[in-house]
C-alpha cells in the first residue's frame, strides 16, 4: 500500500513539474553536514523519484554532495554505507563518476593519492577501502606502467620500513590483493631485496609447516617470479631450492607442502609453480636436480638431509644418494593426490582462470577451431555438391567431412600455435637481454611485435581458407597458391572478368569480417598476459622430471636399515629432453601423418569436402586425393592402349606402344562428304574462332522443333549470318569444345585433349621450348604461309610468346590492328577509349579486325594471281583468326552500332533473372555475327571464297543466364561449326552432320581434305577426320572443364563426371539441355559399367596429355621419367 501511495505521489509531483532539487530540499538533505547523509531514509525515495523523471540520480547526487564534501569524504560515505548495509544503491556508478571527474581535471596519480589522504594511512595503508579506487584510476591512466607509477608515489610518502610493516600488518584480500602484491614487488625490486629477505620480511620464516598456507606466501611467490624473469637462464627448480633454505630438511618441506595442500585444497591463488610439488614424493626428485656450491657426496645416514646437500658436488657425474627415513616413507604412503572429480562447485568458482598456464594455448585452439568450423558449416553443402552431387549430401557424408575437416583444422592450428610460440619465445629472449636498459620503449615495441605477428599469422592461415570457401560457394572453384599466382599474373584482365556486384560486395564484407576478427585475436594476444605462450607448452603434458619420481630411480637398502633413493640427474634430464622432442615430433610430424592416413581411408568426396587448403598448400598438397597421374601407371599395362584413341580411319605408324606420337600417312573409310581439291592449285585455308559462340544461339543448328525450348517458342535467331553461310556449307551441330579459349586453342591447332588444370593451360608461360605438331606445322610442311590474326590483346596466357614459337610465321594482335586502323581508316587514337568505343579492354572491335583481315586476304590473293600469271608456284595461306567483341562483360560496343537499328530479342530474355546481362550478350553476339556476315559477303563478292576453305566455329560457349556460366555445362562447351568451300562441295552443300565431334577433330579433317605432305605428317593428336563417317556408332569425344567437371559425349548422350570422385550424371543433350534428369539410374548394370569404363578412358587420356605437357615429351616415344 505504501509503495502504491508513493508511486501515486510521484506521479502527481511529476505532473506538477516538481524538480529533483525541490524534492531534495523538501527532504532536508541539503542541510545535513554529516557524512551520514547517505543513511537518510529519505534518500531512497529521492533516488526513485529522480529515476521517475528520467534523470541520472547518481550524477545529480554527486553534484550536490561535492558542494559540501571532498571526493575522499564522499567515497568514505559510500564505502561505509556498503560495509554496514545502509547503502541502498550501487557503489559502482558513483565511483566511475568520480574517476571520470578526475580524468576530466587531468589529475595525476599523486594528486588523487593526496586528495584521498592515502599518504596519512601509515601501516594501515592496505586496509583503506578507498585504496582500490586509486589503484583502478592509476591503471586507467597508465595501463601497463601502473605498478611502476603506484610504487613511485608510495615511496615518495613512505619509507621502506613502513612499507614492510604495511605488508606484514595488513591482511590484504579481495580485488586489492593482486594489485597490492604487484606494487609491493615493484618496491622491493627497486631496493634490490632478495627473495630470502622478502621471505623474512613477510614473517614466513618462523611459521614452520604453516608458512606455505599463509596468505602472505602468495605475495612472496609473486616477487620470486619477478626476480626469476630478470635472469638470463631460468631454473624451473629454483623455487624449491629457495624454499629448502627455510626448512631444516626435506621432510619439513614435504610436510609444509602437505599442510598447504590439506588446508587450502585447490584454492586458486596457490602458486601454480608449486602445484606440481604438492605431492611430497616429488620434493626429493626436485631437490636432487639443484646444484649446491662446494658440495661433496656424503653417505652418512646419520647426517641431516640438509647437511648432505651442503656436501654435494656441483660437477655431479654419479647418482645422488639420499636417505629416506621411515617417517618420510610413512608420509609418502599416507599422502594422496586430490581427486579431480571431488571438486566442489565452490572450489571451482575460486579457481583463478587467468592463472592457468595453458590458458593461452586453449584460447588459440578454441578461437581458431571455432572460426574454422563456422566457415565449414556454411560452405559444406556447396563443397559436397561441387565434388559430388545433391544426392551425395547425406548425414554420413556431412559427419565424415566435418570430422575429418576438424582434424585437419586441428593440425593447421597446431602449426599456427607453434609459430606464435616461437615468436613469443624470441620476444622473451630479447626482453630478458635488453629489458633492463631499454625499459618502456622495448615494452611498447614488444606489444607492437606481438600484435603484428599475431595478425599477420592469423591472416596468413585464415585468408586462403576463407577464400577457398567463398570460391566454392560462388564459383565452384578451389583456392590454391597457383590460382593466386595466375590471378596476379593476369591481373590486368580481371577488370573484364565476369564478376557480379553481389560477389564483389560479399568479398568486401567477408574480408572486412576477417580483418576485424584477426585484429580482435591480435588485441587479446597483446592485452591478456595469460595469452603469452611461453608460460606453458605441450611438452609439459607428458613428462617433467620434477613430478615423475620414477625417472632414473634406483633403490637399495644400506646398513642400519636406511633406504636410499638414487636419482641420476643427467639420465633424468636426457630422458626429459628426449620426451620433449618426441612431443614436438608427434605434434608437427606424426599428427599430420595420421591426418593424411585418415584422409586416404576416406572417399575422395569426403577428402575434398574436408580439405583445409591452408594446410594442404603448406604440406605440398598431401591432403588432396590421389591425382590422375597415379592411375595412369596402372592402366598402361594393356599395350598398346594408345590405339584406343587413334581413329581407325587414320593410317599411321606409331613410334612406340605408350605414346600417341606417330606418323599419319593417309585416311580411309566411307566419306561423309567430299571437297574437291586441285593439288596444283592448293586452296587457302581460313579458320575463324568466334568468341563465346554457343550452339544454342544458332536457330539453324538447334532446329525448328527446338526440343529443349531454347528459343522460348519464338522464331528468332541471334546469328542469321552464320546460319546463312552454314547452309551453304557443311554444318556441324554436335561439336564440343573445352573452356577457356586457351584450352580450346590446344584442341583446334594441335588435336589434343587440353591440359587439365584450373589454374593454367598448356599455353601458359608461352612454352617456348615445348615441341608441338599441329595445323600450323602441317600447312608449313605443305608450303603454306601461316598467319594468326586477332583484334584481341595476346598477353593473356602468353599467347604473344606461344604463337610465334609454335608454327605461326606472322602474328597480328590488338596493337598492330589499332596501328593499321589508325593509318588506313583514319581512326583517332583517342577513339579506342572514348565514347566512340572503337576498342575496349580486350582490344579492337570485330568490325575493324574483319575489315583489316579482309584487306590483307584480298591483297595476298592478288599476289597469288600475279604469281600464277608469271608461271610461279602458288604460295597458299593458312590463316587463323579469332574475334573478341563478344567477350564478357558485353558492355562496350562501337557507338555507331549502338545507335543503329537492331532486332528485338526481348522474347529471349524477358522474365529471366539476369535479363540485362542476357540482353547485352545477345547484342554483342548479333554485332559479331553482323560483321562476320559482312566479311564473308565481301570475300565471296571478291572471289576469295572460291579459292579458300573456311572453317567457322565457336571457341567455347557462354551462359549469361546464370551467375556461374559453367553451371549450364552444355551452353559452355557445345559450340556451332561449319565448313564452307564454295564450288567444291558438290551435293554436300547444306549437309548437317549429327555425328559427335570435338574441336580436336579439325586437324585430321583438314589434313584429309587438303592432303598430307609427302612422306606423311608427324602428330600426337586424338581427333578423327569428319570428312569420313564415324567408324562406330559408339564413338566418343572428351570435353572437359577443369573449373567444373569432365565429360564424355557419345551420340546425344553426355556423361558428366569428376576427375577423382565417383560422382557421375548422364543426360540427353537434345531433350534435356539444362540437365534436369539423370539417366544413369535407368540403365542396366552392364550399360552403366560401359559408361564407367568410358569414364576411366577419359581420365586416362586427360592424364596422358597433362603428363606429357609437364615433362615436355609430347613428341617423344617415352618421357624421361619412364625411360
From TrEMBL:
<keyword id="KW-0472">Membrane</keyword>
<feature type="transmembrane region" description="Helical">
    <location>
        <begin position="448"/>
        <end position="474"/>
    </location>
</feature>
<dbReference type="Pfam" id="PF00884">
    <property type="entry name" value="Sulfatase"/>
</dbReference>
<feature type="transmembrane region" description="Helical">
    <location>
        <begin position="578"/>
        <end position="598"/>
    </location>
</feature>
<keyword id="KW-0812">Transmembrane</keyword>
<keyword id="KW-1133">Transmembrane helix</keyword>
<dbReference type="InterPro" id="IPR000917">
    <property type="entry name" value="Sulfatase_N"/>
</dbReference>
<dbReference type="InterPro" id="IPR052701">
    <property type="entry name" value="GAG_Ulvan_Degrading_Sulfatases"/>
</dbReference>
<feature type="transmembrane region" description="Helical">
    <location>
        <begin position="507"/>
        <end position="528"/>
    </location>
</feature>
<dbReference type="InterPro" id="IPR017850">
    <property type="entry name" value="Alkaline_phosphatase_core_sf"/>
</dbReference>
<feature type="domain" description="Sulfatase N-terminal">
    <location>
        <begin position="683"/>
        <end position="1011"/>
    </location>
</feature>
<feature type="transmembrane region" description="Helical">
    <location>
        <begin position="358"/>
        <end position="379"/>
    </location>
</feature>
<protein>
    <submittedName>
        <fullName>Sulfatase-like protein</fullName>
    </submittedName>
</protein>
Amino acid at each position: 500500500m505504501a509503495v502504491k501511495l508513493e508511486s501515486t505521489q510521484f506521479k502527481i509531483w511529476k505532473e506538477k513539474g516538481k524538480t529533483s532539487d525541490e524534492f531534495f530540499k523538501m527532504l532536508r538533505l541539503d542541510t545535513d553536514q554529516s557524512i551520514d547523509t547517505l543513511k537518510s531514509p529519505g534518500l531512497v525515495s529521492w533516488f526513485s523519484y529522480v529515476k521517475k523523471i528520467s534523470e541520472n540520480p547518481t550524477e545529480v547526487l554527486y553534484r550536490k554532495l561535492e558542494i559540501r564534501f571532498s571526493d575522499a569524504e564522499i567515497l568514505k560515505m559510500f564505502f561505509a554505507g556498503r560495509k554496514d548495509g545502509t547503502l541502498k544503491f550501487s557503489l559502482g556508478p558513483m565511483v566511475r563518476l568520480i574517476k571520470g571527474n578526475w580524468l576530466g581535471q587531468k589529475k595525476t596519480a599523486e594528486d588523487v593519492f593526496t586528495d584521498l589522504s592515502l599518504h596519512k594511512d601509515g601501516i594501515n595503508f592496505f586496509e583503506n577501502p578507498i585504496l582500490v579506487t586509486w589503484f583502478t584510476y592509476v591503471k586507467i591512466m597508465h595501463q601497463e606502467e601502473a605498478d611502476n607509477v603506484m610504487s613511485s608515489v608510495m615511496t615518495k610518502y613512505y619509507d621502506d620500513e613502513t612499507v614492510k610493516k604495511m605488508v606484514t600488518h595488513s591482511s590484504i584480500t579481495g580485488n586489492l590483493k593482486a594489485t597490492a602484491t604487484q606494487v609491493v614487488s615493484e618496491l622491493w625490486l627497486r631496493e634490490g631485496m632478495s627473495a630470502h629477505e622478502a621471505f623474512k620480511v613477510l614473517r614466513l620464516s618462523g611459521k614452520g609447516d604453516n608458512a606455505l598456507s599463509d596468505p602472505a606466501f602468495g605475495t612472496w611467490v609473486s616477487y620470486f617470479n619477478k626476480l626469476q624473469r630478470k635472469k638470463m637462464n631460468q631454473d624451473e627448480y629454483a623455487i624449491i631450492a629457495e624454499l629448502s633454505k627455510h626448512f631444516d630438511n626435506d621432510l619439513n618441506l614435504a610436510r609444509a607442502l602437505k599442510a598447504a595442500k590439506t588446508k587450502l585444497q585447490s584454492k586458486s591463488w596457490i602458486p601454480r609453480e608449486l602445484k606440481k610439488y604438492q605431492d611430497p614424493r616429488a620434493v626429493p626428485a626436485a631437490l636432487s636436480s639443484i646444484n649446491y656450491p662446494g658440495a661433496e657426496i656424503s653417505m652418512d645416514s646419520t647426517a641431516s638431509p640438509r647437511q648432505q646437500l651442503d656436501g654435494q658436488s656441483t660437477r655431479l657425474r654419479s647418482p645422488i644418494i639420499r636417505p629416506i627415513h621411515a617417517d618420510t616413507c610413512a608420509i609418502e604412503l599416507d599422502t594422496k593426490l586430490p581427486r579431480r572429480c571431488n571438486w566442489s562447485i565452490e572450489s571451482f568458482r575460486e579457481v583463478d582462470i587467468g592463472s592457468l598456464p595453458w590458458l593461452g594455448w586453449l584460447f588459440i585452439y578454441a578461437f581458431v577451431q571455432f572460426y574454422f568450423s563456422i566457415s565449414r558449416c556454411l560452405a559444406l553443402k556447396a563443397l559436397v555438391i561441387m565434388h559430388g552431387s545433391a544426392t551425395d549430401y547425406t548425414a554420413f557424408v556431412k559427419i565424415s567431412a566435418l570430422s575429418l575437416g576438424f582434424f585437419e583444422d586441428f593440425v593447421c592450428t597446431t602449426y599456427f600455435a607453434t609459430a606464435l610460440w616461437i615468436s613469443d619465445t624470441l620476444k622473451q629472449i630479447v626482453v630478458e637481454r635488453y629489458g633492463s636498459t631499454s625499459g618502456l620503449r622495448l615494452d611498447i615495441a614488444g606489444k607492437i611485435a606481438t600484435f603484428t605477428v599475431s595478425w599477420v599469422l592469423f591472416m596468413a592461415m585464415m585468408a586462403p581458407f576463407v577464400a577457398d570457401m567463398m570460391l566454392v560457394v560462388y564459383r565452384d572453384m578451389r583456392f590454391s597458391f597457383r590460382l593466386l599466382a595466375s590471378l596476379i599474373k593476369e591481373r590486368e584482365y580481371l577488370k573484364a572478368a565476369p564478376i557480379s556486384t553481389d560477389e564483389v560486395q560479399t568479398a568486401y564484407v567477408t574480408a572486412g569480417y576477417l580483418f576485424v576478427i584477426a585484429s580482435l585475436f591480435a588485441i587479446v594476444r597483446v592485452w591478456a598476459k595469460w595469452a603469452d605462450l611461453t608460460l606453458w607448452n605441450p611438452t609439459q603434458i607428458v613428462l617433467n622430471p620434477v613430478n615423475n619420481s620414477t625417472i632414473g630411480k634406483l633403490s637399495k637398502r644400506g646398513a642400519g636399515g636406511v633406504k636410499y633413493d638414487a636419482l641420476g640427474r643427467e639420465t633424468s634430464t636426457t630422458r626429459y629432453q628426449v620426451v620433449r622432442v618426441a612431443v614436438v615430433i608427434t605434434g608437427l610430424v606424426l599428427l599430420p601423418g595420421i591426418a593424411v592416413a585418415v584422409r586416404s581411408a576416406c572417399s575422395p568426396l569426403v577428402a575434398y569436402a574436408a580439405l583445409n587448403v591452408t594446410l594442404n598448400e603448406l604440406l605440398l598438397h598431401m591432403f588432396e586425393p590421389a591425382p590422375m597421374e597415379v592411375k595412369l601407371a596402372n592402366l598402361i599395362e594393356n599395350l598398346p592402349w594408345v590405339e584406343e584413341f587413334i581413329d581407325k580411319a587414320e593410317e599411321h605408324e606409331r613410334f612406340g606402344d605408350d605414346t600417341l606420337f606417330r606418323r599419319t600417312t593417309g585416311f580411309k573409310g566411307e566419306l561423309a562428304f567430299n571437297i574437291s581439291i586441285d593439288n596444283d592449285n592448293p586452296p587457302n585455308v581460313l579458320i575463324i574462332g568466334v568468341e563465346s559462340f554457343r550452339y544454342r544461339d544458332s536457330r539453324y543448328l538447334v532446329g525448328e522443333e527446338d526440343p529443349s525450348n531454347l528459343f522460348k517458342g519464338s522464331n528468332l535467331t541471334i546469328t542469321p549470318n552464320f546460319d546463312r553461310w552454314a547452309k551453304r556449307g557443311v554444318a556441324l551441330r554436335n561439336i564440343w569444345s573445352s573452356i577457356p579459349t586457351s584450352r580450346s586453342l590446344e584442341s583446334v591447332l594441335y588435336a589434343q585433349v587440353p591440359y587439365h588444370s584450373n589454374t593454367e593451360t598448356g599455353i601458359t608461360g608461352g612454352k617456348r621450348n615445348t615441341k608441338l605438331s599441329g595445323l600450323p606445322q602441317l600447312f608449313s610442311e605443305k608450303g603454306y604461309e601461316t598467319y594468326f590474326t586477332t583484334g584481341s590483346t595476346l598477353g593473356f596466357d602468353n599467347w604473344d610468346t606461344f604463337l610465334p614459337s609454335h608454327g605461326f610465321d606472322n602474328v597480328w594482335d590488338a596493337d598492330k590492328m589499332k596501328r593499321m586502323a589508325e593509318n588506313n581508316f583514319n581512326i583517332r587514337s583517342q577513339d579506342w577509349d572514348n565514347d566512340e568505343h572503337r576498342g575496349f579492354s580486350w582490344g579492337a572491335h570485330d568490325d575493324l579486325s574483319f575489315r583489316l583481315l579482309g584487306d590483307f586476304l584480298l591483297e595476298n590473293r592478288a599476289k597469288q594471281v600475279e604469281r600464277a600469271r608469271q608461271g610461279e608456284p602458288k604460295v597458299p595461306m593458312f590463316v587463323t583468326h579469332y574475334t573478341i567483341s563478344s567477350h564478357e562483360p558485353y558492355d562496350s560496343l562501337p557507338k555507331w552500332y549502338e545507335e543503329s537499328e537492331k532486332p528485338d530479342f526481348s522474347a529471349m530474355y524477358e522474365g529471366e533473372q539476369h535479363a540485362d546481362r542476357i540482353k547485352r550478350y545477345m547484342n554483342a553476339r548479333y554485332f559479331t555475327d553482323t560483321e562476320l556476315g559482312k566479311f564473308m559477303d565481301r570475300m565471296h563478292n571478291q572471289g576469295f571464297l572460291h579459292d579458300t576453305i573456311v572453317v567457322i566455329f565457336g571457341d567455347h560457349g557462354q551462359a549469361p543466364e546464370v551467375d556461374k556460366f559453367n553451371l549450364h555445362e552444355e551452353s559452355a562447351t557445345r559450340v556451332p561449326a561449319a565448313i564452307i568451300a564454295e564450288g567444291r562441295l558438290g551435293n554436300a552443300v547444306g549437309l548437317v552432320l549429327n555425328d559427335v565431334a570435338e574441336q580436336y577433330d579439325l586437324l585430321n579433317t583438314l589434313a584429309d581434305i587438303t592432303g598430307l605432305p609427302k612422306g606423311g605428317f608427324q602428330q600426337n593428336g586424338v581427333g578423327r577426320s569428319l570428312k569420313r563417317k564415324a567408324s562406330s556408332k559408339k564413338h566418343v569425344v572428351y570435353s572437359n572443364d577443369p573449373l567444373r567437371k569432365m565429360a564424355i559425349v557419345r551420340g546425344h548422350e553426355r556423361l558428366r563426371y569428376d576427375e577423382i570422385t565417383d560422382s557421375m550424371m548422364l543426360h540427353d543433350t537434345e531433350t534435356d539441355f539444362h540437365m534436369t534428369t539423370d539417366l544413369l539410374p535407368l540403365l542396366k548394370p552392364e550399360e552403366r559399367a560401359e559408361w564407367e569404363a568410358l569414364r576411366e578412358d577419359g581420365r586416362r587420356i586427360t592424364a596422358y596429355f597433362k603428363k606429357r605437357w609437364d615433362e615436355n615429351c609430347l613428341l617423344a616415344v617415352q618421357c624421361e621419367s619412364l625411360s
